[in-house]
UniProtKB/TrEMBL annotation:
Top-level taxon in the UniProt lineage: Bacteria
Gene Ontology molecular function: heme binding; kinase activity; oxygen binding
Pfam families in the record: Protoglobin
Protein name: Globin-coupled histidine kinase
Keywords assigned: Kinase, Transferase
Keyword Isomerase: no
Membrane-spanning ranges: none
InterPro entries: Globin-like_sf, Globin-sensor_dom, Globin/Proto
Ranges where the Globin-sensor domain occurs: 13-161
């Protein structure tokens, strides 16, 4: 049977703060990424084109895009992408990104789809990061920010599942034990 873990007590805002600490992004890394903000903005429209081409090529993902404003979505994903080059990755940043994850939970989108889309996002971010005067450090910093985003996106899904299961079984500790298979 799974033993209780300290991480189980870390919730909401504290989970975001913990994640920021875990990633340990240094201010110098933030500064390297911030320098590339204008370049990220420049490349963002090409990224979103590739992004939505991929989603439209697959019927199960295209289904989600039928009744939404694609102009708006293109703009939002461009903003999301350039946001990774903002230079400051604090609780407010994490909260904004968590809200994006929550929107995807609400539309009933299986988490495998957004996670798989990292395959489209990473090469663009890497390519832009290589244009820095310190390419290796900047690619590493970009990867950290991207990993943090993936973790936050996933956190939105886990929070939702745990909340519902905890309500059903009468407590979060029991819900966590059930989810660990014990
Ligand atoms: C890396 C993965 C993804 C990122 C970064 C992303 C980003 C975003 C952002 C920033 C928004 C706007 C949120 C807002 O209104 O504030 C959004 C909305 C939306 N996304 Fe995604 N998305 C991702 C994956 C997907 C996938 C795989 C699908 C569908 C197959 C999808 C479908 C949608 C839809 C339908 C909305 C509009 C929701 C609504 O306003 O009702 N997204 N996405």
């Amino acid at each position: 049977m799974a033993q209780d873990r300290a991480s189980w007590t870390v919730k909401d805002e504290a989970a975001l703060e913990e994640l920021i600490q875990l990633m340990n992004l240094r201010p110098e890394e933030g500064a390297l990424l911030k320098d590339l903000g204008p370049k990220a903005k420049e490349h963002a429209p090409t990224l979103t084109k590739t992004f939505y081409d991929r989603l439209f090529a697959h019927p199960n993902t295209a289904e989600y895009l039928k009744d939404v404003s694609l102009d708006r979505l293109h703009g939002m994903v461009q903003e999301w992408f350039t946001g990774m080059f903002c230079g400051v990755y604090d609780t407010e940043y994490a909260r904004r990104r968590l809200r994006i994850g929550e929107i995807h939970v609400k539309i009933g989108l299986p988490v495998r789809y957004p996670l798989a889309m990292i395959d489209v996002v990473m090469p663009y971010g890497d390519q832009i990061s290589r244009e820095s005067a310190k390419p290796e450090e900047t690619v590493a910093a970009f990867r950290k920010v991207l990993a943090m985003d993936v973790a936050i996106f996933n956190q939105a899904y886990e929070d939702n599942q745990l909340r519902h299961l905890a309500e059903m079984v009468g407590g979060e500790r029991l819900a966590r034990r059930l989810l660990s298979g014990s």
